[in-house]
Amino acid sequence: MASLPSVVVGNTLKLESEFRKHTSTSLPFEKRNFTTTHLDKTLEPVCLDFREALSVIKDGPNFESSVYAMSIGLQVHSLSIKLGYESNLRVTNSIMYLYLKCGWISDAKKLFDGMEKISLITWNAMIAGHAQMMDIAEDSLSAHRSGVEALNIFLRLNRSNMKPDIFTFSSILTVCSSLVALEHGEQVHTQTIKTGFLSDVVVGTALVNMYSKCGSIKRASKAFVEMSTRTMISWTSMITAFSQHGRSQQALQLFEDMRLVGVRPNQITFVGVLSACSHAGLVDEALNYFEMMKKEYKIKPVMDHFACLIDMFVRLGKLDEAFEFVKKMDFEPNEVIWSLLIAGCRSHGNLELGFYAAEQLLSLSPKDSETYVMLLNMYLSAGRWKDVSRVRKMMRDEKLGKLKDWSWISIRDRVHSFKPDDRSCPPCGEVDILLGDLLEKARPLGYESQGSLEVTDEKDEETTFSSIHHSEKLAVAFGLLNTPNASPIRVMKSISMCRDCHNFFKFISVLTAREIIIRDSKRLHKFVNGHCSCGDFGSLL
DNA sequence: TTAGGGTTAG
């Protein structure tokens, strides 16, 4: 293998500093003084040490800058071919990571398919790259597709003559968590035991996270206890896991244990801690930890921390205090903060504050379909027709269509998808019969179908209709029919659950004596014996 | 001497 050019004509550092200058700014993307021509000029005299240049590009702090970095990446790629490094695995693998990180999936595939020889790192790049695609995907649908593709690549790797390593395992476990694919995750767990890679702290942490995200707090906790070493991230994962499962006391206890053994928490740890307080309505504790974070650990609060605190006040119905906190922030509230307040105002009947928050939210020109639908529902139920048509017009202007309601359930080696308007998906007859049957049984127990508001894309008018065919209902029914009695049902959903479905699953969990775990676009819902781990709060459509 | 992996609220 030819060695890489270590003598740099021009200056790699120059490229680095230019790149940093344009990406570390807090200016909104469109206001940055940043042009490709400018970068071309920077790049021109640079005959690169490819690794260094690429690592600079890949570490771009956000998606937009990464996309811009592609203009450099492409040039580096073609330069690498011109200079004869096409078959240099280190170079090619780096370029693969770059493409995948920037979301250029087809280019990565083209590169992968065209490579004469590949190494384990190439496989790992493809898997980790698809895993990261899940995070930057525009919607849950494409995120899900990336995840499934990552699983397929992992299967292909297993069938090849190469063996996965710690990097493969940690990536694929993350994919399993995002897909709520417990059975795949369990298989990977077994593999990590057989290969001895489970002792790796990153693999162990990924395993904790996988079990938690798949709804099994018991096994997450077991995996955590069995780790021989733990990093701050391992502790944070477990704290967050307890918090997400509504086990606030355990989350806080674990945080104290973490401090006791001298592991320093970070910003993300405190998000877990504060959200645990929020779930349990522990106002004093939350405020104490907030102070501790600032004073003892010198961690600057970010929007996420405020969101936890505001969420806490909103849950308790203390809307004025929530608003006070919003005013106290050093920065402008974002879409999430206003949405929290609006949801709170709706459930606690404080419409005036809700309308005020809605105006603030609209002035941020949100791009998220779900936000618009939430606003639309709010105005509709208040009979504010002027506002209804205003929001509709904004949605038209933003070219936002109907919410894409998809759900997935992973059973054994297969992932099954469901969408409400597709009556051709898996055996629909049986699913319909079961749903009808459950509906009949739920009514005497007190279930009332509420119907739900939805926005149609073509006719530009809302219709109220039964939510009986919402995708997660189909997926859960399919799961009930195709898994052993008493085993939990795990479903992933592309958008927020609606109130009606949320209510319905409580009854189903009683009627079928099953745990029903649904991860929607917002959070984890675990229905056990008529109750949901979200405490019936949270942004339901 | 190596390109690569794990944690964030609603």
Automatic annotation (TrEMBL):
- Going by the entry's taxonomy, the superkingdom of the source organism is recorded as Eukaryota
Any GO MF annotation of the entry = zinc ion binding
* Any Pfam family matching the protein: PPR_2
Gene3D superfamilies referenced in this protein's UniProt entry, alphabetically: Tetratricopeptide repeat domain
Q: Which GO terms describe its biological process?
A: RNA modification
> Where do the PPR repeats start and stop?
231-265, 266-296, 368-402
Q: Family, per the entry?
A: Belongs to the PPR family. PCMP-H subfamily.
Protein name according to UniProt: DYW domain-containing protein
Source species: Escallonia herrerae
